[in-house]
Design brief:
Elements (H helix, E strand, L loop, with lengths): L17 H15 L12 H21 L21 H6 L4
Length: 96
């Protein structure tokens, strides 16, 4: 085994910033709800509208909350209820 002094000194990775965590979380939530806006989604027009509003609220978060957004204390919008979702989709989403 080599002595520790022979290993290179790599700088410590500081991890993602709070802003990076915020944007990653928001983008994940947007991507996870993309299906709700597809023309062949099983949602009614009213449900699609509710999801569109939710998605817009997610996109508006950085503008409405300022640059010092804290990802763990943020008042995130709540996703609408899914209503009647086909059983196979509900089971894939862990809802059945």
């Amino acid at each position: 085994m080599r002595p520790e002094s022979e290993y290179p000194n790599f700088p410590e990775y500081p991890g993602p910033s709070p802003q990076q965590i915020f944007y990653n979380t928001r983008d994940f939530q947007l991507a996870g709800s993309d299906w709700t806006q597809l023309p062949d989604s099983p949602l009614t027009d009213e449900e699609k509208s509710a999801w569109a509003k939710y998605r817009q609220e997610l996109r508006d978060l950085p503008d409405t909350k300022g640059k010092e957004t804290q990802p763990f204390t943020e008042n995130w919008p709540v996703a609408p209820a899914l209503g009647k979702v086909p059983h196979t989709l509900a089971s894939k989403l862990g809802l059945a």
